[in-house]
Design a protein that fits this description.
33% strand, Alpha-D-Glucose-1,6-Bisphosphate, Chain A, domain 4, six-stranded antiparallel β-sheet, globular, 4 helices
């Protein structure tokens, strides 16, 4: 049977070391709201987005310029029934030189089409990897989820200006 884990691949002009460093800068491409170390073997870090998604990861592999693996310890989505879907899955970034370019293969091992969250996760991971992480590596700036307090203040300021 064909591998059904979610995968995405990007190809960049930067070095494997630059790609590795960008991947580990989780606040630069996924969410500014991430808490904890995201660049140390064995570290545990916490991601959350509003009341929609929260997740706890442990970094189980960290091979400079080659590979990063996060193991999912805890996960919550407010839009699915089975809250165990991501628990004990692995998020894997494999980095390899391809001529004068660098290829990043992203695989969420255990995130499969049978999961209730798959379609939403497919779209979200796809955007974070192929757009935000890609832009962080190639342009120096990704599009992570902003810190919620900043969003709240911006909305309040906008509402005040519209009065």
């Amino acid at each position: 049977m064909e591998n059904q884990n979610f995968t995405a691949t990007i190809l960049v002009d930067q070095t494997p070391t630059q790609a590795f460093d960008a991947i580990n800068n989780v606040r630069g491409w996924w969410s500014e709201e991430t808490k904890g170390d995201t660049d140390k073997l064995g570290a545990v870090f916490y991601y959350h987005y509003q009341d929609v998604h929260s997740c706890t990861f442990q970094i189980t592999e960290l091979i400079p310029g080659k590979k990063v693996v996060w193991h999912v310890l805890q996960n919550y989505f407010n839009f699915i029934k089975d809250q165990s879907e991501w628990v004990d899955t692995d998020v894997v970034f494999e980095i390899a030189g391809k001529g004068d370019k660098t290829e990043i293969n992203f695989t969420h091992i255990g995130l499969v089409p049978a999961y209730e969250c798959y379609d939403i996760c497919f779209n979200a991971w796809g955007t974070y990897i192929t757009k935000s992480l890609y832009d962080l590596i190639t342009k120096g700036k990704g599009q992570p989820n902003p810190i919620e307090e900043a969003v709240k203040k911006a909305r309040e300021m906008s509402a005040e200006l519209l009065k």
